[in-house]
Amino acid sequence: MSPHFRAVALEHASRLVNHGPTVLVTSAHGDRRNVMAAAWSMPVEFTPPRIAVVIDKHTWTRELVVASGAFGLCLPGAALVDLTYAVGQSSGRALDKFARHGIAASLGPVLGMPVIETGCAAWLECRLIREPHTEDAYDTCFGEVVAAAADARIFADGRWSFRDDNAELQTIHHLGGGNFVRAGGVLRAAAP
Amino acid sequence: MSPHFRAVALEHASRLVNHGPTVLVTSAHGDRRNVMAAAWSMPVEFTPPRIAVVIDKHTWTRELVVASGAFGLCLPGAALVDLTYAVGQSSGRALDKFARHGIAASLGPVLGMPVIETGCAAWLECRLIREPHTEDAYDTCFGEVVAAAADARIFADGRWSFRDDNAELQTIHHLGGGNFVRAGGVLRAAAP
Questions:
Q1: Do the Cβ atoms of B19 and B11 come closer than 8 Å?
Q2: Fewer CB within a 10 Å sphere, N or C end of chain B?
Q3: Residue A189 carries which DSSP code?
Q4: Are the C-beta atoms of residues B189 and A81 closer than 8 Å to each other?
Q5: Beta carbons of A40 and B39 less than 8 Å apart
Q6: Inter-chain CB proximity A181 and B183 less than 8 Å
Q7: Predicted local distance difference test score (pLDDT) of residue A186
């Protein structure tokens, strides 16, 4: 465990992904585990905290998620942009991508999903909510967040803080083809 | 119509929202129309281009969307951060938010949804795909993109180009409570 990570209250979990970061989806079942990148996820409910994520039905991740009924979402910081792109370009069916890429993972506290802290801003551990129709028709998987944690240097007291001194932890957002933008440059809207 | 807007090929439509921008959801039915902000949307399929967006069942937007079977998604640029927050904080049930906020809208070419170009980076016109269960259980509405366009100064030939000279058009991503980050600072991942 990273000494910088702190538990995030479940009522604040949706804020971790409210701004649309690209995530790493982690999964495990039996003695197998996997990690892939996903740009397509979003919160769908504040309380209980629920999210949706698109996981193609042909992926190894999807098999593991359905088998275990659980998955993790980890938010890579800017320092992990190469890794994020790499794990999105290959399948883990024939190899362990954690070992292949030297990714240190610990186990989530509730469901035992792999969670990545080094280089990541936050993670969420989720219980799959089975919705066979949307899983089949739209590859859209719903989940309830049952645990979450974040690096206190960038998310604390339920709020993000993007600053010059935490640029390497700032979330990344995939434009396509290996091009990402980094979340930064906070704009404060005027009160309506 | 803005002189800078160009049609986006439907095969590239998912790229407009791949990086998780906050959007303005537009709707119209009969002689009523509305606009609200939504941070929770994502692509779910490249071809045909399909997206999911969370629209609370108690909103006026939801009523209009279900009545017409259509909606628009407009991507506000950084110059519209105050407007985006403002239209997310009030209901359009009793007034026309376009008139209230001085928003110029034209009509989408396929479904006649209001689309906003001034200050926006892009828009997508979507046909609602009725999914009563997910609409009810998760407020999640699926749609097929039937037309899209973008300001060529920031999205052209199927690709985003975030540069110093188009900062006002760069997409915004809501952190919560009126705090947004602007997409910028492109990071190029190494080939795996």
A1: no
A2: N
A3: P
A4: yes
A5: no
A6: yes
A7: 84
Tens-place pLDDT, residues B27-41: 999 999 999 999 999
Q: Please give the domain boundaries of chain B with CATH numbers for all domains.
A: 5-182 (2.30.110.10)
A186 Cβ contact list (under 8 Å, min separation 6)? A162, B175, B179, B180, B181
* HSE of B188, CA atoms in CB hemisphere, 13 A: 5
A146, two tokens: 């049952």
pTM score > 0.95 for this model?
yes
- Residue A62 forms contact with B (CB below 8 Å): no
Q: Within chain A, which residues score under 70 in pLDDT? A: none
d(CA A37, CA A75): 10
Report the residue from A21, A44, A82 with minimal CB separation from B139: A44
**B20 interface with A at CB cutoff 8 Å:** yes
- Taking only the tens place, the pLDDT of each residue in B81-109 is 999 999 999 999 999 999 999 999 999 99
**Rounded average pLDDT over B187-192:** 86
A5/A151 Cα distance (integer angstroms): 4
Which pLDDT does position B161 carry in this prediction?
A: 95
d(CA A105, CA A52): 23
Please say if the pLDDT value at position B142 is more than 80: yes
